[in-house]
Amino acid sequence: MPELLNDVLQTLKSHAAGALTEVAETMAFLCAIPVAEDDAAQVSPPTDAVRLDMSFSGPMSGRVEVVAPEALGAMILESMLCADAVDTQQARHDALLELMNMTCGALFHNASSELGATFNIGLPQLQPFDATENWAAFTAQAGVSILDIDGLAVAIRVSRGDRNI
User: Fold this and answer.
1) d(Cα 76, Cα 96) in Å, to the nearest integer?
2) What band does 34 get if pLDDT is binned at 50, 70 and 90?
3) Distance CA 98, CA 42 (A)
4) Closest C-alpha to 135, from 57, 45, 72
5) Which site among 25, 103, 116, 159 is 20 to 30 Å from 11 CA-CA?
6) For residues 19 and 64, what is the distance between their CA atoms, to the nearest angstrom?
7) Nearest CA to 13 among 51, 56, 72, 42?
8) How confident is the model over 9-32, as pLDDT tens digits?
9) 2-160: what CATH class?
């Protein structure tokens, strides 16, 4: 059983950055470039960051977390709606929540196909994130991927249960 859980977790981690990249590029026509592990420590923390969180269950339970700046929500709105007239904090948060929802949909679809397993996903949640205090600790965890999305630093990780793996 532990070997199966490890396989599931590794599959999810290996697909996480790709799912976020795919969604950013197809949903909002934004360019997402993975940051090399060797360069990750030099990435500056995003300003006005939020943490997006979505729980899941299936062959294992856990959560997917994304740390992103609110400015990414503004970029998504501008790209999708071709206007900044709706650029309010709530609209930016809604755009980021939808990014998380679509990312997890792509992630778990791909993982389900590969593993032959079914996953259930919760609703995305959004909380403030003090990137000045917490970015280094968040991104130093094993399996965290950092992306440069049109010049903005975004990090994604998958964890099992309540603890990070």
Assistant:
1) 8
2) very high
3) 29
4) 45
5) 25
6) 12
7) 56
8) 999 999 999 999 999 999 999 999
9) alpha beta
- Calculate Rg over the CA atoms of the chain: 15
Structure tokens at 130: 């003090």
Are the beta carbons of 10 and 165 closer than 8 angstroms?
A: no
Q: Is 55 helix (H, G, I), strand (E, B) or coil?
A: strand
The first and second tokens of residue 66, run together, are: 């994304």
Whose CA is closest to 155, among 89, 66, 46, 39? 66
Residue 58 contacts residue 115 (beta carbons within 8 Å): no
- Residue identified by tokens 């790209």 is 79
Domain locations along the chain:
2-160
Are residues 45 and 140 in contact, defined by beta-carbon separation less than 8 angstroms?
no
Burial class, 43, CB count within 10 angstroms (exposed 0-12 / middle 13-18 / buried 19+):
middle
